[in-house]
Specification:
Length: 178
């Protein structure tokens, strides 16, 4: 099967028959997309087509500031043909062009193929651990997600040592490799 994929941003995204058809082809428990037909959609939505046929779509949520959450869905009849990689590559490129440092993708605990999807993301550079539902990937400019080099000045006596950071603060996983 020859695949000639195209990618387009939807200017005024709405939940339509193509999205409903593709979402319905996903296994039960894989998605939580509950929109009424014709409903306006939040965020930025993109569509992947093979000729005139919609074969996948992606969502980019940039409300996280320097990070973005991404969602991709591929028509089950087209899985294994490179459509998912095509959608993922384009979502990452879009995030990078906007100055986003990291993209996140969550694999629902109820997804019947959770381990396979987790591994698919890991092969593409997403990091987390086997129990994480959310994996992330640095897509920003090199060094844009890194913390500055540690100071050579001694830390105050009442400061916390490495590994004792206060919870609730943003911690750059890339800068905290053990």
């Amino acid at each position: 099967m020859s695949v000639q994929l195209t990618w387009a941003r939807e200017d005024n995204p709405v939940w339509d028959a193509d999205k409903a058809r593709i979402a319905a082809s996903a296994p039960d428990g894989a998605l939580a997309l509950d929109f009424a037909d014709g409903a306006d959609l939040p965020g930025d939505w993109f569509v992947a087509k093979d000729g005139d046929d919609v074969v996948g779509f992606g969502f980019l949520d940039t409300t996280w500031g320097g990070d973005a959450e991404i969602t991709l869905v591929v028509d089950s009849a087209r899985q294994g043909a490179g459509v998912g990689a095509f959608v993922m590559d384009h979502l990452e490129q879009e995030a990078r062009s906007r100055g986003i440092n990291y993209v996140h993708n969550s694999v629902r605990d109820t997804h019947p193929d959770r381990d396979a999807v987790h591994d698919w993301l890991a092969v593409r550079g997403y990091k987390g651990n086997e129990s994480d539902a959310t994996l992330r990937k640095h897509v920003g400019k090199p060094g844009s997600g890194r913390l500055p080099e540690p100071s050579t000045t001694a830390a105050p006596s009442d400061s916390r040592s490495q590994g004792e950071e206060e919870s609730g603060d943003y911690v750059d996983v890339e800068a905290h490799r053990f």
